[in-house]
Records
---
Amino acid sequence: MRVAVAGASGFVGRALLPRLAASGHEVVRLVRRAASGPDEVAFDPVTGVVDLDALSGVQAIVNLAGAGIGDKRWTEAYKKTLYDSHVGSAATLATAAAEVSPAPAVLVSVGAMGYYGNATHGMRLTEDLPAGSDVAARIVADKEAATAPARDAGVRVVLPRLSLVMGRDGGTFGRRLLPLARAGLLGPLAGGSSLWSVVSVQDVARALEFLLAAEHTAGPYNVSAPSTTTNREFTRLLGEAVHRPTVLPVPRFGISLVLGEFATDVLADFNVDPSRLEAAGFSFEHPDARTVVSAALA
């Protein structure tokens, strides 16, 4: 397939693009500047503009665009940046998918487990549950709703909801956890009892490729290792893997100082169930915290 990818230079994009190329797909990057070659298409989620002529002939679109949820402290300004970038990119690409001729067969618009909200109290989270009411939940829910133009135009729309993506080259793991663990400064967060749903970046790339090709799939799919862990257990496994102690507890107020309002989401329980994705035919290579840590360090 000829696949257009927005957010190709991001953490997940850097894992996905080589996989698509290795499988024989032709990748086109959606870039927020003037295109510099035939493998790029100009795209501006702020103004809602896409070069439809250049997009013509694309058979699939993957939307990974949007500011990083955990990249900065959540000020009011950054919350607006998060909302505008995520919802704006989804709306722009869904409209483009509906208007371009010929239309692509599929739009994969990637969201997150934050859809379910930060007050789930350990409930096993399946795709039929309603969205939460906090900031992150509203961003993901509105991002999913923004894909309606593509679905209404007959495009197959798939909505992956990613759990905590782990890999050494980015994300929460690579930017925050791994450097602290290697320095011997990582410990359980606020006691470590929070339920954590994690997934390797390798399995995320595999799942996105699977959903692109699996014509029987549509709608939301949780993308998370089947076995949920706790922050304490994940921290212990990471410490063992890098041969460093993980005994220094990180107090709640310290996390709040660094992350602001987002600290509530970091310390919430997320018990994500990927059974729908598995029932569709996908199999995880890294099904639990131990194998996710090993893959992240590979």
---
Amino acid sequence: MAHNRDEEETSWLLATLPAAEFRRLARQLEPVWLTAGQVLHEPEQNIPYVYFPCGGLISLVTPFGEDKTVEVGLIGREGMVGLPVFLGGKDAPFRAVVHGTGQALRMPADELRKAVSRSRLLTDLLLRYTNAFLVQVAQTAACRSLHPVANRYCYWLLMAHDRMGSDHLPFTQKLLAMMMAVRLASVTEAASALRGAGLIRYTRGGINILDRPGLEAVCCPCYRVIKKHFDRLLA
């Protein structure tokens, strides 16, 4: 996934803004640390802040009942948490939960609305991000319906790898099964096959990517569709 700054701890999305535009926006941005398990907003509740992650990973999930959720999108350094605020809403139908610890730049929702009203450049950027994110949501839904668990497992690993920028992904097989809304046994089988092929290694502490090109080769086309749109956004 392309970006135009060398620093690891930065928002790739905001880094595409001209320097002067970013400096104006930075007055309303507050650095915060996001920790695994932290909930940034709940369904049907007011979204107080938007977040531009500089590291880590945030999952958007739709809750079903008390103990079941289905993931609808992943957000990392390429994006923004709180997109409904930009689109004119005050809440969202899903929960935003942190899965990978990292830093983010936080802005009050009202300040984002003001910034967008003042800046055509920021508006255009967030419109392009909205388009790319909608592609991700639609492609994820199609992948869930059409492709076997093994392909979807590769897809999730590659998406997380892009967004976290680390070969170590601190996720358990149980968490991935929950995010993918499949049985743990199915995820374990997929992981075992990839480990046997020398593409990943996993322990209780998480998953290590050993062969990124190999993962891309066995993944379904869904990943490449999404990557193309985000590379275009961040170019």
---
Amino acid sequence: MLSKFKDYLLINGNSFNTAQNYVQRIEKLLREISIDNLSEDTINNYLRILQQKVSPSTFNGYIFAFKAFLIFLKKDIILPKVSRPIQTLPESFDEKYFEEEIIPTLEQITKTDFLKFRAIFYFLFYSGIRIGEINKIKRDDFDLKLNRVKVLMPKTKRERIVFFTDKTNEHIKEYFDSEPEEINAFNITSNSIKQRMKEYKQYFPNINLHCHLFRHAFAMNLLKKGIDLFSVSQLLGHKDIKTTTRYLGLTVDNLQEIYNKKMNK
């Protein structure tokens, strides 16, 4: 049964990893509830207990898996909607959340264009690039040996160099190998990326997902790693460091904390 379910997922455009994750989650479900006893009540009872043990995004992942399995079984059972936040959403996220929550969820909700959006998400988070700067980037602008790319700032019409990590490099290469360049390096406009972010937002209940959030998270990640404020300002492409402090929402206390980490060792 589960091997047929896995084949069904792969035939319908899911990635191998997504199919594996879904099968593993269904295995856990079937240890508690037999197929003959699957119903709205039994599944909801299972989900209520599960909700207390896992993060909201992981909980949503189980709902995705259950929905796919019920479609496979041709069972008409209504499942709860994905988990919604109650508290005010933070305007940032860290590397752990990015790697363990955002990317796995992205893999579950994308199909044929996962490689493209994984590369874009990594590029946004680890370069701090403005979303509008993506429009003009061509693959010839990338130096994949040195992990950097030349971008044109739309407002000032000045060029700047943006850096990215080794892992980002790997995902960019994998995407570039999968699809030839047409309109730009990622074959997508900034407006189309913004629209996708709106569509994906419902699957990330713990953050207020939007394009600029990645730039903010990039900046906060640099500060957490001990990179000085002036360097952060340069990496963001700000002409005035005052813009950086306003952009990050840094107060006197924040600045003193940064100072103390470096000066009071």
---
Amino acid sequence: MKQLLVNFLQRQGFIEIASSLPEFSFCFHLETQYVNVVHLIDYKDGLYIPTDQYELLKSKIVDFFAEKNLKEIHILSLIFSNDISKAETLKGQDRFCWIIDTGTKELVTGDAAVEDFYGMKRQFLTFLDNPQVLGAPLEELEPEQETQKKQSFLMSDNKDRIPFINIMIVSLNVLLFIMCTFTGNLLYNIGMLTGPQTLVTGEYYRLFTSMFLHMNVDHLVNNMMILLFLGNMVEKTAGHVRYLIIYLAAGLGGGLASIGYQSFLGITNDSLGASGAVFGLFGALLFFAIINKGKIQSLSLGRVSFVIAFSLYIGFTATNVDNAAHVGGVISGFIMALVIYVFGRIFRFGKLHQNKDK
């Protein structure tokens, strides 16, 4: 019956977000100032859900929308079960939770529960009068449209999101460069990447600090101009925390690639700059374009691929450029975007354990 109700809600304009477990999903409808969410739990025989796990599910849904700058989130849980007492135990004192008796096809709200949820009680009662008809599978074209709407929301071009993390990163790079002009080689000696010696001496922090140091004004301006453009785009697409993770992971990956390449050649060169992390943003954009069916914001998959190839070509034909860091950055940025995307889908609703009732 859960899938029938999902079909019914989709006809009302809701979008379904599935979890890695078929028993749990939610459907949402974006309004002007808020989002309405119907949280669906198929509480089958043999499935046991602790109350704290139920609360975790709802908190994960709040986090999901909060990451997309949606602050007003209204959630109604629907528990599908033929064991009302078992469902009531799970529900606890949650006023925003109703139960659908799968045996009698009745809606059980309870005395302490809210009377209605934005007019949806009447819709649920109408659905339960004839679920097989009103919840019939959607027409062939609609699933494709539903997928496109869902992907658009999951990786949306949120033009209203202020990329403050990227602005802070650019500001930090500029501030440190200004400090370097007054301190001479002090910060460079402390923070630049000293090739394979970084690992030999155990000064692993240089993998991080070298990302924020630049040798001269041209070096700084070139990296910051690209970072302002790419960073704003990636942060608006992925969100603030995800962007910071991608940026740092790409920078560290670029630094490790640089050290590894130098070790392979048996040479030692000092290196510094944000280019490894910047190239990582190219890699992240490439991944976003792939999962968005070939386009991300105003860039197509072909354009992103061309810019990456052209930028790498410029690096390989120039002198005094750490190309290994660029390549490592691209790969690290792509992989980290992939990891965040996959883990976000797997763990969005937390883990539940299926046990026998005792």
